[in-house]
Amino acid sequence: MQKVYYFHNLRNLFKIRLENVPDTTGAFFIFIFFELF
Questions:
Q1: pTM for the complete prediction?
Q2: How many domains does the chain have?
Q3: To the nearest 5 percent, what fractions of the chain are helix, strand and coil?
Q4: Whether the Cβ atoms of residue 10 and residue 29 lie closer than 8 Å to each other
């Protein structure tokens, strides 16, 4: 549950940085980011 909450927090941060990037691309990028851990 905590990881999901952390995931949504990161998603919101990335949304601010990648405003012009489609939501699907941002989610995919964050998915890769979590796979590195």
A1: 0.30
A2: 1
A3: 80, 0, 20
A4: no
